[in-house]
Design brief:
Elements lengths: L3 H28 L69 E5 L2 E7 L4 H11 L4 E4 L3 E4 L13 E12 L2 E13 L2 E2 L4 H19 L2 H23 L2
Antiparallel strand pairs: 1-2, 2-6, 3-4, 4-5, 5-6, 6-7
Length: 238
């Protein structure tokens, strides 16, 4: 007869081993965020042969060329092929001030806001809140030192420094955020338009969060609390 105790102990050990292995796989998956920016699928299309010019046999008449069907062959540079394609959705500047307007163009995020919103005055507080050092400042320009501003799908070794400008007009002020430097380790990546947009707009939106009217911040906090409460009640009712 089988020894039931030995068999049971062996089953428990096997279960523990399999659980440990599964945990290692889950940890690995949890720390690898590349799936958020990489295409997942077959890449055989990358090996497609390049089109060759049409060879017309002697004595054969072909229709006249038409620019309407001409295929332009452009030299593509950067992350535009296969798993190099960054599939993360671009982030956009979000104005949180009533009667304000925000835009992003060519590496610069801009805000046009009423002067009485006092956005400029909250920028030092926002920078300090996110541990971004200020190298120099005056009434219209703030220059920051290097800092890491990243989320769960970013690399913590990317650092950025910024120049923030203010332009005063009657009744309004323009706040302009642009990069001074952007590096990954020792590599300069300031020519990567995707990363430039992400890091410029990220700081811009952090400033907007701080500059948002307190009433909207309280409303958002209450909404978040209600979501947590509803979730708790739903889980308790199961």
């Amino acid at each position: 007869m089988f020894n039931k105790t030995m068999l049971k102990n062996k089953a428990i050990k096997n279960t523990m081993v399999m659980t440990a292995i599964a945990s290692l796989f889950l940890v690995g998956c949890g720390s690898d965020q590349n799936y958020k920016r990489e295409v997942d699928g077959n890449e055989d299309y990358l090996n497609s042969p390049v089109l060759k010019p049409l060879t017309v046999p002697q004595g054969v008449t072909v229709p006249a060329e038409s620019s309407e069907y001409y295929i332009h062959f452009n030299k593509n540079e950067g992350a535009v092929y296969g798993k190099q394609v960054d599939i993360r959705a671009p982030i956009i500047p979000i104005p949180t001030i009533p009667d304000s307007y925000a835009s992003y163009n060519y590496g610069t995020a801009s805000l046009n806001a009423p002067a009485d919103a006092n956005v400029w005055s909250v920028i030092p507080t926002a920078l300090n809140k996110y541990n971004i050092p200020i190298s120099s400042s005056d009434n219209n320009v703030i220059v920051t030192g290097n800092a890491s501003i990243f989320s769960s799908d970013e690399e913590p070794n990317i650092q950025a420094s910024y120049v923030i400008h203010r332009q005063n007009y009657p009744g309004t002020e323009n706040i302009i955020v642009e990069l001074k430097t952007l590096t990954r380790g020792t590599q300069d990546i300031s020519s990567d338009s995707i990363e430039v947009q992400r890091y410029v707009v990220r700081l811009f939106n952090l400033i907007m969060d701080e500059a948002a009217p307190k009433s909207s911040q309280v409303a958002q906090e209450q909404t978040d609390e209600n979501v947590v409460e509803d979730k708790t009640i739903h889980e308790d009712s199961k």
